[in-house]
Design brief:
The complex is a heterodimer of chains A (285) and B (308). Chain A contains 13 helices and two strands; from the N terminus they run αααββαααααααααα. Chain A is mainly α and 285 residues long. Chain A has two domains: 6-75, no CATH class; 77-278, MetI-like fold. In chain A, β1 (64-67) and β2 (70-73) form a beta hairpin. In chain A, α4 (76-107) packs parallel to α7 and α4 (76-107) runs antiparallel to α11 (234-245). Chain A starts with 5 loop residues before the first helix and ends in a 7-residue tail after the last helix. In chain A, 48% of the residues are buried. The radius of gyration of chain B is 26 Å and the shape is globular. Chain B contains 13 helices and two strands. Classes of the chains: A mainly alpha (285), B mainly alpha (308). At the A-B interface, α1, α4, α5, α6 and α7 of A face α1, α3, α4, α5 and α6 of B.
C-alpha cells in the first residue's frame, strides 16, 4: 500500500470527494434552505446567493406561521419536547431494567438468562407492526392510547435489547476478580454491584444509553401508530407538518434541522462507541 | 452479610438461596418485558386466523388458515412479496458494494480518514423518516435542486418518487444515503482489525494487488461482510419509514412492501385479519434470516469479547 502511484492517489482523492459530496450535500442543502424565504427557495435556477433569514426558525419557535391564507398556529416545539421526553424517559427506564439484567447474564450462567437475552434480541429483528397493530387495539381497551406511559413502554422494544447486549459485553470484559475481592472484604452483592461493577462499566453504559437515545429519537412507526398529534415526536410531527403547512418549504427545512441536530450532537459524543453499538456489541471499533 | 461467627451456618444457607434467586430477580423485569411483547405477538397469530374487519364486526369469525390460503390467488400479495424482496436485495447489494469501496478508501488510519468516517456517520444518525423528507424537498418538481440538476442533464420532467418508473430508484437512493455508512463503518472496523502479517508477506513476494484483495482481504473480511449484510437485509426487508414518508407505498402499488401494505390494510381497509397474516409471513421470513444472522453475529462477538 505504500507504493501508491500519483495516478492512484488522484483517483482515490476524486472518489473520496464524490463520496463526501453525495453524503454531505443533502444536509448542507437543507441547512441552506432553512435560512431562506419561500420566494428565494422557489427561484429558478436555484442560487447559492441569498440574504439569510432566521424567520423560519422564529416562526417554529413562536408557533405562529404566516401563510398566504393568514396566520396559522403550529406547535412544532411540542413535537420537539415530546421527542426529548419520550427518548430520555425510555432510556432511563431501559437502563434501570437492562443494566441489572445485563449484569446477571454476564456473571451468572443460567438457562433462563440466555433464553431471555436471545428472545429480546430476536424482537429487535421482528417487524414492529406485527406487535404494534394488536397493541393498538389493546391500548384502546387499557386506556393507554396516546399516553406517554404507553409509548415509553413500547419504546423499550427499541432500547432494551440494545442496552442489554452492549452492557452485557462490557460486564463480560471486566474480570470478576475485583468483585470477588470486594465480596471477601465483607460487602454484600448489591454494594459490590453498585460500587465496583457499575463504575467500571460506566463508559459502556453511557455509550449504550446515548445510542438507545438516538434510536428512540429516530423512531417513526411506534408513535405513528400509537400517538395523536399532541404526543407525537419530531419524526411523525415533521411529516404532519408538511401536510399542514403546505408550501412553507423554508419552515419544513428548519423543522428538519431542529429535529436532526440533537442526534448529530449525541453521535459526536458517542462516536467512539458507535461501531460497537450499531453491531449490538459484536464488533469493536 | 458480615454477620457474627455464631450465625455463620444459617447465613451461608440463606445467602446460597439468595445467590440462586439473584440472577432470576435481576432479569425479572426483562422477562416481564418479553412476556409483554409475546402477548401481542400471539394475539397477532390469532388475528391472522380470523375473518376480522373493524368496519364489519358482525362478520368476525374463526376461519383457520383462510387468510393465508387467499394469498396464493391474490396478485396483491405476490406484488408485496416481490417488491419487498427486490427492495431488500437492491438496497443491500448497492450498500454493500459502496460501503466496501468507501471502507477500502478510508482504511489507513490517518487523521483525515478518521474525520471523514465520522462525517459519513451523519446520514446514519438522521431519522430515516426525516431523511425521506429531506430528499422529498430536494426532488420537488417545482424547486428541488436535484430536479433542477437532472434537467440540466437532459431529464426536464423527472418526477422521482411520484413516477412509477422512478419511484423504486428514488426510495433506494434515500435508503442508500442513510444506510451505506452502516456497512462502511462495520467493514472499516473489520478491515482495520485484520492481522497485518499476510499482507506484509504478500507485499514482500510482490503478489498482485487484485490477488491480495480477492484471495486474502475478502476471505478474511467475510465474517464482517456476512454479519453486516444479514443485519441490513433483516432491516431492509421490513423497511417502512423511508417508503411511507416518501410515497406512502405509491404511486399505485409500486412500493407496497410488507409493512406498508399491512399498515394500510389495518388503518385504511380495516382488514385486521389480512394485515396480521401479512405480518406473520414477514415475521417467518425475518425469523429464518435472524437465526442465520445470530450465528454469524455470535462468532464475531466471541472474537471481540473473548467470551460467548
Amino acid at each position: 500500500m505504500d507504493h501508491t502511484s500519483p495516478l492512484e492517489k488522484l483517483i482515490r482523492a476524486a472518489l473520496l470527494a464524490i463520496v463526501i459530496i453525495f453524503f454531505m450535500f443533502p444536509i448542507a442543502w437543507i441547512v441552506l434552505m432553512s435560512f431562506q424565504t419561500n420566494e428565494s427557495i422557489l427561484r429558478i435556477p436555484p442560487s447559492l446567493i441569498f440574504t439569510p433569514t432566521i424567520e423560519n426558525y422564529v416562526a417554529l419557535i413562536t408557533g405562529e406561521m404566516r401563510t398566504a391564507a393568514g396566520s396559522l398556529k403550529l406547535d412544532f416545539m411540542r413535537n420537539l419536547w415530546n421527542s426529548v421526553l419520550l427518548s430520555s424517559a425510555s432510556v432511563a427506564v431501559s437502563l434501570l431494567l437492562g443494566v441489572p439484567a445485563a449484569y446477571a447474564f454476564a456473571r451468572f450462567k443460567f438457562r433462563l438468562g440466555e433464553d431471555i437475552a436471545f428472545t429480546l434480541l430476536s424482537f429487535r429483528f421482528a417487524p414492529p407492526l406485527l406487535v404494534l397493530l394488536p397493541l393498538s387495539l389493546y391500548f384502546k381497551t387499557l386506556g393507554l392510547t396516546n399516553t406517554y406511559i404507553g409509548l415509553i413502554w413500547v419504546y423499550q422494544l427499541i432500547c432494551l435489547p440494545l442496552i442489554l447486549w452492549i452492557v452485557r459485553g462490557y460486564f463480560e470484559d471486566l474480570s470478576p476478580d475485583i468483585e470477588h475481592a470486594h465480596r471477601i472484604a465483607g460487602y454484600n452483592w448489591f454494594q459490590t454491584f453498585w460500587k465496583i461493577a457499575i463504575p467500571l462499566a460506566l463508559p459502556g453504559i453511557a455509550a449504550a444509553g446515548l445510542l438507545a437515545f438516538i434510536f428512540a429519537w429516530n423512531n417513526f412507526v411506534f408513535a405513528l401508530v400509537l400517538a395523536s398529534a399532541d404526543k407525537q415526536p419530531v419524526t411523525v410531527g415533521a411529516l404532519a407538518f408538511v401536510t399542514a403547512s403546505g408550501i412553507q418549504y423554508g419552515q419544513i427545512a428548519a423543522a428538519i434541522i431542529f429535529s436532526i441536530i440533537p442526534t448529530f450532537v449525541l453521535a459526536m459524543f458517542a462516536q467512539r462507541y458507535l461501531v460497537e453499538g450499531l453491531s449490538l456489541g459484536a464488533v469493536k471499533g | 452479610m458480615a454477620t457474627g461467627t455464631a450465625k455463620t451456618a444459617p447465613a451461608v444457607k440463606q445467602s446460597r438461596l439468595a445467590r440462586k434467586a439473584l440472577p432470576y430477580l435481576l432479569s425479572l423485569p426483562a422477562l416481564l418485558m418479553c412476556i409483554g411483547i409475546l402477548i401481542p405477538f400471539f394475539t397477532a397469530v390469532y388475528y391472522s386466523l380470523l375473518r376480522y374487519r373493524l368496519n364489519l364486526p358482525a362478520m368476525k369469525g374463526f376461519i383457520w388458515f383462510q387468510n393465508y390460503i387467499n394469498f396464493f390467488s391474490d396478485p396483491k400479495f405476490w406484488n408485496t412479496l416481490k417488491i419487498s424482496l427486490v427492495y431488500a436485495g437492491l438496497t443491500v447489494i448497492v450498500e454493500l458494494v459502496l460501503g466496501l469501496m468507501i471502507a477500502l478508501l478510508l482504511q489507513r488510519r490517518t487523521r483525515f480518514n478518521n474525520f471523514v468516517s465520522i462525517l459519513l456517520l451523519l446520514p446514519l444518525m438522521t431519522a430515516p423518516a426525516l431523511a425521506a423528507l429531506m430528499w422529498k424537498l430536494m426532488t420537488n418538481p417545482n424547486f428541488g435542486i436535484l430536479s433542477y440538476l437532472v434537467s440540466l442533464l437532459g431529464f426536464p420532467d423527472m418526477k422521482w418518487g411520484s413516477d412509477p418508473a422512478t419511484a423504486l430508484f428514488t426510495v433506494t437512493l434515500v435508503d442508500v444515503w442513510v444506510y451505506t455508512p452502516f456497512m462502511m463503518i462495520l467493514l472499516l472496523a473489520g478491515l482495520r482489525s485484520l492481522p497485518p502479517a499476510p499482507f506484509e508477506a504478500a507485499a514482500l513476494d510482490g503478489v498482485p494487488r487484485s490477488f491480495v484483495f480477492f484471495r486474502i482481504t475478502l476471505p478474511m473480511l467475510m465474517p464482517y461482510i456476512l454479519t453486516a449484510t444479514l443485519f441490513r437485509l433483516l432491516d431492509s426487508i421490513q423497511q417502512f419509514d423511508i417508503i411511507y414518508a416518501m410515497t406512502q407505498g405509491g404511486p399505485g402499488d409500486k412500493l407496497l412492501v410488507f409493512q406498508v401494505q399491512a399498515y394500510l390494510d389495518f388503518f385504511q381497509a380495516t382488514n385486521v385479519g389480512r394485515s396480521a397474516a401479512l405480518m406473520i409471513i414477514l415475521w417467518a421470513i425475518t425469523y429464518a434470516l435472524s437465526n442465520v444472522f445470530i450465528k454469524q453475529w455470535l462468532k464475531l462477538r466471541e472474537r471481540a469479547h473473548g467470551v460467548a
